[in-house]
Design brief:
The structure holds two protein chains of two kinds. Chain A is an all-alpha fold. Chain A has helices at residues 6-13, 21-29, 31-54, 62-83, 87-102, 114-140, 146-160, 164-190. Chain A starts with 5 loop residues before the first helix and ends with a helix. Chain B has helices at 9-17, 21-43, 46-62, 73-88, 101-104, 106-111, 121-133, 136-146, 152-159, 163-187. Classes of the chains: A mainly alpha, B mainly alpha. At the A-B interface, helix 3, helix 4, helix 5, helix 6 and helix 8 of A face helix 1, helix 2, helix 3, helix 7 and helix 8 of B.
């Protein structure tokens, strides 16, 4: 144990009591540590009271955040397409941008601009991560049945999706699957 | 998905990155109080702190894909809040070099009992005044340590500072604050 353990004293000042027996013995027997603990307690409490005076509720800020997100989404759609940031925006942009490129072409390998290819890849990863979370929650509630079929279908589609058009279709499939998972969780809540 | 409160930060982050608006709302509900408290302490201006909190979450929403470790979500959001406040820069105070008060006044330290500070409204005012005198960046670092309980490593990430600078800045701020509180105790036996 470090002599005069400052990190442990800070935790003790905050009321976190998971100190080891050796730490407690040292603090109880060390005048310097006891005095430092007194100062840290004062600092913690007075700082908390000072911040209480400048604090304010956060919940009322949510509607304004939502409004700003809607406005930002409208303004930044083109920038998100170039940067490939965010699964929802990337997927929407991928569908909008990539699909017109393929219109009228043969369904064979088509080269995409790097930004669109990156957007597709990012969207694929993020959708699959989100689906894993939802599936785990459905499973916790004993969900079964149609989801297993949808999952198997998406897995097969993912293995087969080489062309951009097929990958865009796959993203649409992910979005629909997520919707059905959420619906079954909502139904479970109502029961 | 009404019981999203049971989801941990990594799970909420994964859902939000997948476009789940309700999950992002839960991230706001869970972490906005800490962000607002941090902004209020640094800016000391209610409307500015409200604006900074809103802007923090708007920027965070645009950058969700950049954070891959959901366990770091709170520190990451506080780091964005710090940048938002830097960008606002409404009443930046120039840094004043620290004095060396404790070394010069060690005998007072032996006698003063900090426990008396808990009971005094005047002590509250002394500490609040000392916090206000700190530069905005130093005040932010102190708040992240003393009130938000971030580790020095997390503070280094949030502030964009080397680890040693974090420790030095917080130590200097503590020296200044304690000197003022000691002076108060000596003047009010």
């Amino acid at each position: 144990m470090t002599e005069h353990p400052h990190d442990e004293l800070e935790r003790a000042a905050r009321g976190e009591t998971d100190l080891s027996a050796a730490q407690r013995i040292h603090i109880d027997g060390c005048e310097r540590c006891r005095r430092e603990l007194g100062w840290l307690r004062a600092e913690t409490r007075l700082t908390a009271r000072a911040l209480d005076a400048t604090d304010g509720p956060a919940a009322p800020l949510w509607p304004a955040v939502q409004a700003k997100l809607r406005a930002a989404r409208r303004r930044r759609w083109a920038m998100r397409a170039a940067a490939g940031i965010g699964a929802a925006a990337a997927a929407a942009v991928a569908i909008v941008l990539v699909a017109p490129e393929l219109r009228g072409r043969e369904a064979e390998e088509t080269e995409l601009p790097p930004s669109s290819a990156l957007a597709l890849e990012r969207a694929d990863q993020d959708y699959r991560a989100a689906i894993s979370v939802l599936e785990a929650r459905v499973q916790d509630r004993g969900g079964k049945g149609p989801h297993a079929q949808a999952r198997a279908g998406l897995s097969r589609a993912r293995s087969a999706a080489r062309e951009p058009a097929a990958r865009v279709k796959l993203l649409e499939g992910y979005a629909a699957y997520m919707k059905s998972l959420r619906r079954s969780l909502d139904v479970g809540d109502e029961q | 998905m009404s019981d999203s409160t049971a989801l941990d930060d990594p799970a909420l982050l994964a859902l939000a990155r997948g476009g789940d608006a309700e999950a992002f709302g839960m991230i706001f509900q869970r972490h906005a109080p800490a962000v607002r408290r941090f902004a209020g302490g640094v800016l000391r201006d209610g409307p500015a702190a409200d604006e900074a909190t809103q802007e923090t979450f708007v920027r965070a929403h645009a950058k969700l894909s950049a954070l891959r470790d959901g366990a770091r979500l709170r520190g990451w959001l506080l780091g964005i809040a710090r940048i938002v406040m830097l960008d606002a820069r409404s009443q930046e105070r120039r840094e004043v070099p620290s004095a060396e008060p404790l070394g010069a006044d060690a005998s007072a330290d032996e006698e003063a009992s900090p426990e008396r500070l808990f009971l005094s409204a005047e002590a509250d005012a002394v500490l609040a005044a000392e916090l206000a005198k700190l530069s905005r960046e130093r005040r932010a670092a102190v708040i992240l340590r003393v009130d938000q309980h971030l580790s020095y490593g997390e503070i280094a990430e949030a502030m964009g500072w080397p680890l040693q600078k974090v420790k030095n800045e917080i130590h200097r701020a503590r020296l200044e604050i304690r000197a003022a509180l000691l002076a108060y105790l000596k003047g009010n036996p």
